Amino acid sequence: MSRSIKNLVVERIAAAIALGVISACTPASPDAASFARMPDGRPNLNGIWVASNTANWNLETHEAKQGPVVALGAAFSVPGGLGVVEGDSIPYKPEALAQRDANAATWMTNDPEVRCYLPGVPRATYMPYPFQIVQSTEPNDVLITYEFASASRIVHMRTQQEFPIESWMGWSNGKWEGDTLVVDVTGFVGQTWFDRAGNYHSDALHVVERYTPKGPDVIHYEATIEDPDIFTRPWKISMPLYRRLEQNAQLMEYKCVEFAEELMYGPLSKPKSTPAP
Amino acid sequence: MRNALSVSIGTLSLLFALAWSVSAQTNNQSYVAPRTPWGDPDLQGQWNSQTATPLERPLTGPLAGKETLTDEEAEGVEQRNRARNDSAPTAGDPGTYNSFWNDIGKGLNRTQLILDPPDGRVPAYTPEAEQRLAAERAERATRGPADSYADLPIWTRCITRGWNGIGSNYSSNTQIFQSPGYVVVLQELIHEPRIIPLDGRPGLPRDVQPWLGVSRGHFEGDTLVVETRNFDARSSYRGSSTDLILTERYTRVSDDEIDYRFTMHDPGTYVSDWTVGRPMRQETDGLTIFEYACHEGNIAMTGILAGARKEEQDAAAKQ
CB count, 10 Å around CB of A56? Predict the structure, then answer.
């Protein structure tokens, strides 16, 4: 028996005994024990999930403020929100912080979300749209598919390989660490942002996500963000992800390209003929 | 007499369709599709449906009257496609994708992808559809080729390439994912996850018309059957209307092949239903689907629209 298989067997037996002991002696842990499992014993992360917070407005703690479109008044102003960054401050290098502030000042013209560009990771997770995890049993790949822009990414479970070339959603390699799905994401283009407050990164971005079940309808989500060109050290965000419990919950189609076309190409359209005086 | 004739043509098409499906099944009678641990036929993996075989049987030339092709004839179809791709552009034409870019795919031992009707052609339009399509053409003719972004094809606009059965000149790749209660067909072009619930839930109200319609699926034996309705009028395929009911059937007939067919049912548009068969082959060369970020790099839109404006300015200056 190879060492790794032996380790796996020992690990599984230990886990089974531990689970038996827990269920026999103590009330089941509200976390892993109450989370459904797949036939291969892994936590079943299948479902439609959504983050219910204001991180897409700003990862850091922020107060409410007037929205940029005066005509929309209170309907589309900016809600206040608590930060999701550990320590509540993103450790920018000084020159990068200046760029973030410049981004913030021009977000309506420069935020890639406005143009319906693929949102990147981790932003896709906490945009105000649901996403669906499609998980089979090992060794099949996992798919995470997002309502916004029909974005999706394959979490490679069968083979772990280096990214072949940069992409908007990055290259995701996944593995299980106990009951946590750990996704290592590299190979990003440097053109996506983290939020509407101008927080950003370069193409040196490296994200490690951790999806850990916390009860039947909650995943604890963490993402460690590393980008030595922009930040002085790695930093971490975390938030709960909630299951959409409606029986008929489904992702709707949000192909937002057509909603960005007038903004992007309107000025290149043939001018409308002016009516005769 | 006329009724009797249409009945007999209908019967013939049915017999032909039956014969084809029986022969497809008998070829692989011993094959049992693997199952997922929760008991669904397992279609997971990466598949490619590129083929050199055209949708319709040619009306002229050596293949006009043929139903089946020898290997040599099928290879001839591939070679002709390659030659057409690589032919030198005419004067003034900047040229387009050649065989280096386009994926020719394999020629099938059938003359065309259409399995039914037996003549291998898209059925005629109904008078009602002729009228609708003529009105659309007339409306379109009131504008230039690129007056607005909305005048350009939805693929050029990077909105969608449509569902996977339509295929393409390149990257006709899909990866199928399954979980209890769902199948997702992820199309590489142009990053399109088709999420298909299997729990028998109802569709959506008629006025909700996504670009790719609303899909619901179920298994019939080894076959995944997906029915899609509520298509957006702007993602019409071969003149189809928003009343189209598309039925797709995915049957794994070997470890390496899915027998994929779709039927177009749109009686207001076509005089009869029509069915296309487009085999999906397992990708075994270690390649993987890669992100197709279309809109993000779509400088063609800017080029086409700016070019049209420049031509108008030049024309105005000459007057």
Answer: 23
Question: Angle formed by the axes of helices B299-318 and A257-265, to 10°?
Answer: 40
Q: What is the pLDDT of residues B52-89, one digit of tens each?
A: 999 999 999 888 889 999 999 999 999 998 998 888 88
Instruction: Note whether A153 contacts B149, CB cutoff 8 Å.
Output: no
The CATH number covering residue B158 comes to 2.40.128.20
In a domain, B126, yes or no: yes
CA atoms within 13 A on the CB side of A55: 28
Query: How confident is the model over B145-163, as a mean pLDDT?
Result: 95
Structural domain range at position A121: 47-265
Q: pLDDT by residue (tens digit) across B168-215?
A: 889 999 999 999 999 999 999 999 999 999 999 999 999 999 999 999
Give the separation between CA A106 and CA B249, rounded to whole angstroms.
49
CA B292-B295-B300 angle, to 5 degrees, is: 110
User: Considering its fold, how many domains does chain A have in total?
Assistant: 2
A20 and A134 share a domain?
A: no
Interface predicted TM-score (ipTM):
0.88
| Gap from A123 CA to chain B (nearest CA, Å) | 17
Q: What is the pLDDT of residue B20?
A: 46
Q: Are residues A22 and A154 in the same domain?
A: no
DSSP class of residue B91 equals T
Whether residue A78 sits in one domain with residue A24 = no
The mean of the pLDDT values for chain A is 89
Q: How far apart are CA A275 and CA A271, in angstroms?
A: 12
Domain span including residue B281: 2-51+113-318
Residue in chain A nearest B311 by alpha carbon: A270
> Is the residue at B192 inside a domain?
yes
Give domain status of residue B263, yes or no: yes
Q: Is residue A214 part of a domain?
A: yes
- Same domain for A5 and A100? no
Asked if A221 and A144 sit in the same domain, the reply is yes
Partners of residue A145 in chain B, C-beta under 8 Å: 184, 186, 193, 195
Does some domain include residue A55?
Answer: yes
Count: domains in chain B = 1
In a domain, A36, yes or no: no
For residues A20 and A154, state if they share a domain. no
Residue B239 lies in a domain: yes
In a domain, A199, yes or no: yes
Same domain, A126 and A258: yes
For testing contact with chain A, the best of B196, B296, B304 (most A CBs within 10 A): B296
Interior angle at CA A94, CA A93 and CA A99, nearest 5: 95
Cβ pair B290:A265 closer than 8 A: no
Chain B positions touching chain A (beta carbons under 8 Å): 36-38, 44, 144, 147-150, 157-160, 175, 177-182, 184, 186, 191-193, 195, 197, 201, 210-212, 288-291, 293, 295-296, 301-302, 305-306, 308-309, 312
- Within 10 angstroms of residue A63's Cβ, the number of other Cβ atoms is 9
